[in-house]
Specification:
8 helices; 333 residues; alpha+beta; globular; 5-stranded antiparallel sheet; Aminopeptidase
């Protein structure tokens, strides 16, 4: 999938406000209006959250670091790195009056949930997981020679279900055979079975760049008022949807899965992204769409078609789910 950036002419309006912060902050950084969305100066945000800011390359790349956390940003880009994991920001970092600025929406909807995990309700626990093998039946998904995506998403789902069950989770699949299921019905199945998490499984393809494009990426729901990384095929506007109730948990789940996939598979980190696809829009539980690799890439495709590698993918997803559960439950008990 192509990764898009958003940039347009910028105007600054200074407003007084109280920012949403990761922990109780002693400072109240002023907000600026830059190109429509509200922005906060990164120097103020860093000071309020005990980060040291320094330029790695003047007016191009900067780092915010604390004892346990490192954030990397690129000016005029939505590319970011949070503790070694790629995360696509909702809006580009901008420089105004010589000062780097981050969108307030990214401070609240991207950094905050990842750096300070959202709390689970007291006594709540992740026990039921719904797996959604992408495509099926008349919808083959991507093709790589004679290999069809629908076949391998189902095989991955079977392997993942086995490993999750072994880890103590209760698992259900949206399809148990090569069957076509409408997108709204997939979420309907998860709701009916009271799933605590919804994991939609896919493999990617880039036929025009088959030899160079590879790696894993994870998508979660786009917050209200922000553009999606990849709006292709969304079929809906940028308003509010049920999936937006869980923005914080969605992005934290996506982050933990992306972190685990790239670490355990030693594959290219294509980052955490946002989209308003139907399986994310209508979810009433934390939901993500996982693109676990590129079938079109000759070397990665051969791995995907191998049962041993799919077992590694499944283990990485299980590790990511476990990390999400630990991160949300340790503060909610």
């Amino acid at each position: 999938m192509k990764l898009a950036s958003v940039c347009s002419p910028l105007a600054i309006v200074f407003l007084a406000f109280i920012p949403h912060t990761i922990e109780a902050a002693p400072r109240r950084p002023p907000v600026q209006r830059v190109s429509g969305p509200a922005y906060v100066r990164l120097t103020d945000w860093a000071r309020a959250h005990s980060f040291e800011l320094r330029w790695l390359k003047k007016d191009e790349t900067l780092q915010l670091a604390s004892q346990s956390t490192r954030l990397l940003f690129t000016v005029d880009s939505t590319d970011a790195d949070i503790n070694g994991v790629g995360v696509r920001l909702l809006f580009p970092v901008a420089i105004r009056d010589g000062v780097p600025c981050l969108s307030q929406l990214d401070a609240q909807m991207t950094l905050d949930p990842i750096l300070s995990p959202p709390r689970a309700r007291r006594g709540a626990s992740v026990t039921r997981i719904c797996l959604d093998p992408g495509h099926g039946g008349k919808d083959p998904g991507e093709r790589a020679g004679s290999h069809l995506e629908k076949t391998y998403t189902f095989l991955l789902a079977e392997e993942l279900a086995s490993q999750l069950t072994g880890a103590g989770y209760k698992v259900t699949l949206t399809r148990n055979t090569d069957t076509f299921i409408e997108l709204p019905d997939r979420i309907g199945i998860a709701k009916k079975r009271s799933a605590d998490l919804f994991l939609c499984l896919h493999f990617n393809s880039a036929p025009n760049s088959a030899n160079t494009v590879r790696g894993a990426e994870v998508y979660c729901m786009t917050p209200v008022g922000a553009p999606s990384t990849n709006a292709r095929g969304e079929g809906a506007g940028a308003g509010w949807y049920p999936g937006n109730r869980l923005n914080d948990k969605n992005v934290y789940l996506a982050y933990q899965l992306q972190r685990s996939l790239t670490k355990n598979l030693a594959t290219e980190d294509r980052g955490v992204h946002r989209a308003r696809w139907a399986v994310l829009r209508d979810a009433t539980m934390p939901a993500v769409l996982i693109e676990a690799g590129f079938m079109s890439n000759p070397s990665e495709g051969r791995k995907i078609f191998d049962a041993g590698y799919r077992k590694q993918i499944a283990k990485a997803i299980v590790d990511g789910v476990n990390a999400y559960r630990r991160g949300t439950e340790q503060r909610g008990s």
